[in-house]
Design goal:
The complex is a heterodimer. By secondary structure, chain A is mostly helical. A two-stranded antiparallel sheet of chain A has the order 1-2. The radius of gyration of chain A is 23 Å and the shape is globular. The two termini of chain A are about 45 Å apart. Chain B is mostly helical. Classes of the chains: A mainly alpha, B mainly alpha. The interface between A and B is large, with 35 and 43 residues.
Chain lengths: ~575, ~100
């Protein structure tokens, strides 16, 4: 492993190649797309993570043009971990989708089928080809056309979404962040509408309008920041603001206003309570693999930008009171989302409201990071930083696994209603296990990744003397256990008089289970990811006179000889 | 009042008008139009507001940003119009139904 290998570039190029192949060659390219998605991207992400672990943050100036004008890719521990978790989820979703969108699944004539299909390059023939009841078969054939269409568009959209996500995590300037977050949103909206249903179309339209409002607010903030500082690079902005004489009180009001509108836009996109109403219908009506991506990754993207802005780029412009306010909204999301999850009757809506609740935990990171002061001033609480980010990672894996498992269970039982899940644990033990293991993370029970995250947040609450947040963290866990139990109760329910099961491709079940096991592994083997998370953490430029963040080793300013044109090179 | 400030205020007004319309208007075409006006407001701020010494050439960076922003807005508008047509075809009206779950 050389420190110079450009794995950081491959992490963006590999999914982009998949997108081009999928768009250009349709289903004939699916094996190649799978190869680039399920192998290429995880390999690049893993290699990049090892590089960051061994050699520190990685930086690559595209085409040799660095900041302030060129586009730079940059990976510290946080970016590398987000990339790695997306890669794991993406690989699982790709494998799952190869089964889910297999045209032969939807066609009852071919379900019993001998495997003599002319398109021999396609995925392996379905195993476990039990015949469904004929009435269901007819339903399936009526939706077969919609499914075939969805399958054709799913791959290019998903690969584009993956490209945009990876580029977003590696971005080093705010305008690039805007473009990538917009690409993420547009492809996510298109994925929601793939279901082709009435509910899916309406939910997708609402998601698009809401998400565009969020993006434009973010762009307005960028315009204000550029007006004030004449730079777009995260490092440049951090350098320009960190040295503000007189400390946080002397930050110009335009900067605080810019940060406020950007925060509002990002909170809309992350569905923070009370701006969450668009999320449950959109996530619940998308096709299952798309739901997994939306709940697992897409909402984390805007949260990631928020963390970068608040804690690393402009910490000096964040008043201590704002940290408390956003924490209160997060706490309200935990409680309100959990309560609504408790009263849902449909499986996917229950999981979607659970997402609203679990996203609330992410925002507890902000108040717990300090004991009331500005994040630029004092030392960070390391447990809060690790716990908040770990919650994002663990929830991503677990929630994606739950949506994938739910897709299999709904396919087998033929209905989205909780009541239709009776006895599903006997019919789809693998999917059911995946769902249950994901539930561990939601409730924060050991040995899951969610347990580590919530434990760290609890620790931070006690260390900083803010025990009120501990009540929310514990209460949210109890509520989560209750709504997961509602599903388990049905799943373990009656075992006699069940309709004959509809076959689910084994790869769909295994993909969900694998992902759920990763969520558990995040709990068992937390040391290495947590250490990686510390690489390059802390404000980009420590404020003058700040105590600093000794454990987190802040990333220093660029060396003066960094590549790229001089700032005034284009001025006549 | 200096020119940059004037541009910034005009841009902010456009943005606010658009934001009001996108929330208040129910017809989807109005919403898409209003989103475009919000975008134009931001572009006006980007182009007009950054102060520059008199006589110096204009800063090319915001112009590049606005060009990119226009490309993004056009794509988003295309997707929004296509989806709006789909909503109209499915529900018979080019409106989003009132929130049932809010």
């Amino acid at each position: 492993m050389s420190p110079d290998s450009p794995w950081i570039v491959w992490a963006v190029v590999a999914p982009l190649a998949g997108a081009v192949l999928a768009a250009g060659f349709g289903s004939r390219a699916t094996p190649l797309v799978l190869l680039s998605g399920a192998l290429g991207v995880p390999a690049s992400a893993a290699a990049l993570a090892v590089q960051v672990e061994r050699f520190g943050p990685q930086r690559h100036a595209l085409g040799g043009w660095g900041e302030p004008l060129g586009i730079e890719l940059y990976a510290d521990g946080l970016a590398a971990l987000m990339l790695l978790v997306s890669a794991v989820i993406g690989a699982a979703v790709s494998v799952y989708s190869a089964g889910f969108f297999d045209p032969r699944l939807a066609l009852p004539v071919q379900r019993t089928g001998t495997s003599g299909h002319p398109e021999g390059t396609g995925p392996a023939p379905l195993r476990g080809t039990g015949t469904g009841p004929t009435s269901r078969g007819r339903d399936a054939s009526s939706t077969a056309h919609a499914d075939a269409r969805a399958g054709r568009f799913f791959w290019p959209l998903w690969m584009l979404l993956w490209t945009a996500l990876n580029a977003l995590f590696l971005s080093r300037d705010i305008f690039n962040l805007y473009v990538t977050v917009e690409l993420v949103s547009l492809s996510a909206v298109a994925l929601v509408t793939l279901a082709g249903t009435h509910a899916g179309t309406v939910a997708g339209m609402r998601y698009l309008v809401v998400s565009l409002i969020g993006s434009l607010l973010f762009l307005l903030g960028i315009a204000l920041l550029y007006t004030a500082y004449g730079t777009l690079s995260l490092d440049g902005l951090a350098r320009a603001t960190a040295g503000t004489l007189g400390g946080p009180a002397a930050v110009p009001p335009a900067t605080v206003l810019a940060l406020a509108v950007m925060t509002l836009g990002l909170c809309i996109k992350t569905a923070l309570f009370p701006l969450h109403a668009w999320l449950p219908p959109a996530h619940a009506s998308a096709p299952p693999p798309a739901s997994a991506l939306l709940s697992g990754l897409v909402v984390k993207a805007s949260f990631y930008i928020l963390v970068r802005l608040w804690l690393q780029v402009l910490p000096i412009a964040v008043p201590g009171k704002a940290l408390g306010l956003i924490g209160v909204l997060g706490a309200a999301a935990v409680l309100w989302g959990s309560v609504l999850a408790l009263v849902q009757r449909s499986l996917k809506l229950l999981i979607a409201y659970s997402t609203v609740a679990q996203l609330g935990y992410l925002f507890l990171l902000f108040p717990l990071l300090t004991d009331g002061g500005s994040p630029a001033a004092g030392a960070w609480n390391e447990a809060a930083w690790s716990g908040g980010i770990y919650q994002a990672l663990a929830h991503a894996c677990a929630k994606a696994a739950m949506f994938l498992a739910a897709g299999s269970m709904i396919h087998a039982s033929g209905s989205d209603a909780l009541a239709a899940l009776d006895g599903i644990s006997h019919r789809l033990p693998l999917s059911f296990t995946a769902f249950g293991l994901g539930g561990l993370t939601m409730a924060g029970l050991p040995p899951s990744g969610g347990f580590i995250a919530k434990w760290l947040l609890l620790t931070a609450a006690f260390e900083t003397g803010q025990w009120v947040w501990a009540v929310v963290i514990a209460g949210g866990g109890l509520l989560a256990a209750a709504y997961v139990y509602r599903v388990l109760r049905h799943a373990f329910g009656r075992t006699e008089d069940l309709p004959p099961p509809v076959a689910v491709p084994r790869r769909m079940e295994l993909a969900a289970l694998g992902l759920a096991l990763v969520a558990v592994a995040l709990g068992v083997g937390a040391t290495r990811p947590l250490e990686l998370l510390g690489v390059g953490a802390g404000p980009l430029v420590p404020a003058p006179g700040a105590v600093g963040v000794p454990e987190l080793a802040p990333y220093g300013p660029l060396p003066p000889g960094a590549p790229g044109p001089a700032p005034g090179a284009l001025a006549p | 009042m200096t020119a940059p400030l004037l541009y910034a205020l005009a841009g902010a007004c456009l943005f606010a008008l658009g934001l009001h319309a996108v929330l208040a208007r129910r017809h989807l075409f109005w919403k898409v139009l209003a989103l475009n006006i919000m975008g134009s407001g931001v572009f006006l701020v980007l182009i007009g507001a950054p102060a520059r010494p008199s006589g110096a050439a204009a800063d090319p960076v915001p112009q590049a940003l606005v060009l990119t922003g226009i490309v993004v807005t056009v794509s988003a508008t295309a997707l929004a119009l296509g989806l709006a047509l789909r909503v109209a075809a499915k529900t018979g009206r080019a409106h989003l139904p009132e929130d049932a779950d809010a």
